[in-house]
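Budget justification, computational time. The allocation requested in the original proposal was used primarily to generate structure tokens for proteins on the priority list. As evidence of use, we reproduce two of the resulting records. The first is shown immediately below.
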Amino acid sequence: MDIRKEYIEFFKSKGHSEVGSSPLVPDDSSLLFTNAGMVQFKSIFTGEIPTPENPTATSSQTCLRAGGKHNDLENVGHTARHHTLFEMLGNFSFGDYFKEEAIAYAWEFVTKNLDFPVEKLWVTVHNSDDEAYNIWKKYVAEDRIKRLGDKDNFWQMGDTGPCGPSSEIFYDQGSEEFSGEEDYLGGDGDRFLEIWNLVFMQYDKDSDGNLNPLPKPSIDTGMGLERVVAIKEGKTNNFDSSLFMPIIEKVAELIGKITIRKVVQVTE
């Protein structure tokens, strides 16, 4: 399955316009790099530029997180899921649909298109978001929905700009593979793998920390291509998937080793 194509075509079938990936260095002084799919739509969310004729969009955005608010550099190599450079699949609503439809679309894609077992899926919402919690109860058993605080379920692009409460979908990779002290829902371990973040864009945070309501509540989502590909291929480490292994194997060949894992063992 071509996950990227499947995702884009799914949202095009729901009326979204496909938008190309924007440059890694954005025209935005508040950011070092494009760190999320919504960066190129920031001015639409804030109302600085008019809403496009089609108020819904979908994209596969190349992102770089090696500095600024969203800096994953120190996590690379310590987890099986983090990268500095990665692709974020996203669907966006600019004042069109909101929580109800965003959750319904996500659940349909994950359970129907990706065919992920329902018993492997868990959801988090912001601890103040009763609306999202009640919507999720239509799809997920209540004991699989967890409320978390700002650290986990309130998303913002940078120190200022569009932001709002979020809801995340997790895939349980199993206690037989992961049983560390951080392998719980909301922990830093790899057992519960966040695959999709649905951000309910409601505010514009100013330099004084004030949350000013956006002109129109909107939707910004991001699904990690590398993580989903790994799950579909039965891998518990992103680097073991078909997105990375051909490169790793070629490097191993060039340096005269059978696999990169043997190189690691030698250096240790």
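The second record produced under the same allocation is shown here.
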Amino acid sequence: MPAYRYRALSAAGEAQQGLLDAPDLDQALDRIHNMGLTPVRLEPQGAATDRIRRIPFLDKKVTPRDLILFTRQLETMLDSGLPILSSLESLHAQATHPRLKRAIDRVRSDVEQGSTLTEALRRQPECFPRIYVNLVFAGEEGGLLAQMLDRVGTLLEYEAETDQRIRSATFYPTLIITELGLAFLVLIKFVLPRFASLFRKFDTQLPLPTRVLIGVSDFFERWWIPFLFAVGCAAAGAILWSRTPRGRSTIDRMVITTPIFGPIFLMTIMSRFARVLSALLASGIPIVQALDIVRGVVGNTIVEAEIDKMRDGVVAGMGLAEPLRGSPVFPPLVVKMLAVGEETGAVDKMLLRVSRYYDQDVDYAVKNLSTAIEPVLLIILGAAVLFTALAVFLPLWNLMNVFRH
């Protein structure tokens, strides 16, 4: 008869574990219930565990799709009245992603030992990002965890869809730029050195574009190893710098001010800010606490600084809209809608309208992204082709004139 290893809670909330014999899983569950216990974990004896150490860079990352599926399933179970431990145990059994499966097991173990879901999720940053954890924290604080998980799932789905649209819109330009770069490398590595040896045999002044390309070719021919080393060091330095407060602030500012893509990212942040703050206020969370929570949701230090001004203004009795007047980050529409919401006492409803408005704007901007990129792409492509053509054909023309004379 098969043996099953179980972990369960007694009526007093004490954790118990052990082995029992049963013909199948259903009868094993019945025996645990007959013992007056609430099953938390049940698996066949000898089943492979997921606690095997893995090489980090060979372990697949948790994708947005995996996180969305986990969130939707957890929200459904909690909304159906299942306890959090039972829900996590079921999700652990159903999970197929190795890293997520291990994270769910650790989260369940932490919750069983008395941690909140937020604290348990925060200990697994490789699977649950900071924004995700802060949104779950908002749900726990407001006593509306299932509802907040539903909003988290909707937000993740929307951002995954937006990210996919941006990838689709930029695929063709990225492909063209990549092929252009490869063609340039082939030109300076294989084609230009042969032309250069031919041109040097004749006492004639080479055109500037040709001299530039030959100089680039000679540089890579002699110094390509130091060049790659310098690029690697620069990349490592840039990564370390981006983790400093000043570096992150600079990068976050560039993200929302970059032409073409910057407005899309800013509108996405504004939509997230408005939607989450609306949900928190509608849940009855105090405004100062709600601003502290939403500050950790926006994912941009520049916007976080503006939210800090907003929170300080609320504490000083200035309200929500007044501290943002003249803000270089928050659009006037958001400030105006906040002011109207304060006057009418319906800030949460106004913020929800702001979120929907920016959702529509992001959809429109993403749909027209290809149209916005095409002129820039044509200019870059045309300039590169023109420069290369002049560099190759002008000296040939000069050589033909030399031969004629």
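A brief technical remark on that second record: Residues 47-58 have pLDDT under 50 and may be disordered.
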